Each structure stands twice: as structure tokens, then as C-alpha cells.
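Title: [Solved] Neuropeptide S receptor 3D structure

Original question kept below for reference.
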Amino acid sequence: SWTSGRIRAGGHPGPHWGTGFVLLCFLQTEQLITLWVLFVFTIVGNSIVLFSIWRRKRKSRMTFFVTQLAITDSFTGLVNILTDIIWRFTGDFMAPDLVCRVVRYLQVVLLYASTYVLVSLSIDRYHAIVYPMKFLQGEKQAKVLIVIAWGLSFLFSIPTLIIFGKRKLPNGEVQCWALWPDDSYWTPYMTIVAFLVYFIPLTIISVIYAIVIRTIWTKSKASETVISNCSDGKLCTSYNRGLISKAKIKAIKYSIVIILAFICCWSPYFLFDILDNFSLLPDTKERFYASVIIQNLPALNSAINPLIYCVFSSSICFPCGDQRSQDSRMTYRERTERHEMQVLSKPEFI
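Solution (posted by the thread starter after getting help):
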């Protein structure tokens, strides 16, 4: 567990430490296979996204954010997942105490960054839809949002340098572990982390996309009313209704996928850890099995992000020949329709 480094939801030795340790050893192979699969999908998937963006001649603000997300996810694979794999092979933590603190610090930085970059992207999409004119004039906003996201990530992770260190556990292992004087410190610590990493960002993202969807819906209705008064009202209204409908559906799909992916990957992790810290879960084998699965879900978010980009943003995964060939075959009206859809709903909404 990147935020706690425990054996119980990542876990400290509990009252049934012996049983938990036997179960942990029994599941080593399954855990390693899972981690290797997550690592390969994360690195390969995000590398494909980065390579596809690099091949594009024209870079937009959207590709800038996608690049930031792919970079964050790639480092998550290298720093968080790979180090977990190495430690499971070595058993004891072999490196000095300073390395322990730095690695844990970077892991938590990436934990925050993966969420805050997503929040920054949501804010940027909000301005693109709600305030399109200001959006076009504010090219520096994207970079400012990313700087703030990474700045907060580095700032909020500073306590990790103090909390974690190299120590000997009750079972004799030497690990990079939390140096709490008392286990009761876990409850306020994990509660604060849960709010900073999950609950507050989720609230911001949900509110932003709710406003965005409402704005697109309102604009579509207003546009239909205006266009219906033109000389060729039937044709204009029909054309506009089709355009806005596609944009509206596209925006809703992107919004739902983003929010659901975030919720599915992070909710079980933080809800389980909070319940565990407040001692609301029974100390059973079932709870341990659940913790083994749940603690890998945050890494899953970094692995599935590239799939989401490719499903909803074909221009990212296929930026070359086929796309140009398709563009050349499009009529002027089709090209105009696609351009207006991009302005209205930003197809690469994520």
C-alpha cells in the first residue's frame, strides 16, 4: 500500500500476525503475477499513447494533458508497481534508510499527481465548454494547472519523508515501514490522505462535469431555437439537432467513463482502508483476501487509462495515414460538422 505500507490493507502486524503472514506467503505467486500484468499494461499502454502523441505534427492543449497523464501513469508503473515487485522478490529492504524515505515519498507524490492532473484536466475542459472565448485566449492556463497539480503533490507528500523509514518488523524482516510511535496515528493520517487524494478531487470532478453536461444541453436547446428561425428552418434545425446531439452524447460518455473509472479504482481502496483503520472490519481470512485485491486497484487506474484514451480518442491512437486519408474523403460539410463538434464538446474530452 503506497500510502500506509502496511500488511493489513497493506498492513501492520495485527493480533493475528502469524496467520496473516502465512496467507501473505501463500499468495505471493498470485500477487506477483497480478503486479507484473499491471506493470506491463501500464508501461506498454502509456508508451503507445506517448509515441502516438509524439508523431502528431499539431499539438493541442488536449494532447498536453493526455501527455501529462501518460507520463504520470508511466512513472506510477516504474516507481510504485516495479518497486513493489522488487521488494516481493528480495523480501527484506536492502537499500539504506534514505532510499526508503525517498522512494516512499515519490510513490505518494505520484499518488497525488495521478489524481490532481485529472482534476486539472477537468478544470480545463470546464473552461473549454462554459467559457469558450476565454479558453481560446488563455493558452498558459493548461501549464499553470499542471504546475499547481504537481506542486500540491510534492507539498502534500512531505510528511512521508518523516513518517517512513527502515525498521525491523516483529517477524524479523527489515522493511521500509511507517515509524509511528503508536498505531492510533494511522486513523487521522489515512483519513486526511483519503480526503486529499480521493473525496475532495472526486467532488470537484463530479461538480465540474455536471456543469459541463448541463451547459452542453442548454446550448443545444438554445441553438435549436435560434437556427429554426433561419430561411431554411427545417434543414438548419435538422442539421443542428444532429450535430448537438452527437456532441452532447459524446460529452456524457466521456464524463461517465472518467468518473466511473476513477470511482471504481479508488473507492474500494480508500473505503476499505478507512474502515480498517477504524477497526470496523473483522480480522478474518476473507478480509485479508479482500485487502490483497483492493490494494492493487489504484495501480489498475494507470493501466486502463491508455485503453480509455484509445477507445474515445482515435486521433491519439491512429494519428497518421488512415486519419489523413479519411479527412481527404470527407466533404466540406462533414469537415465543418466535425470541427464544430470538437469546439463544442472536445471529443478528446478525457
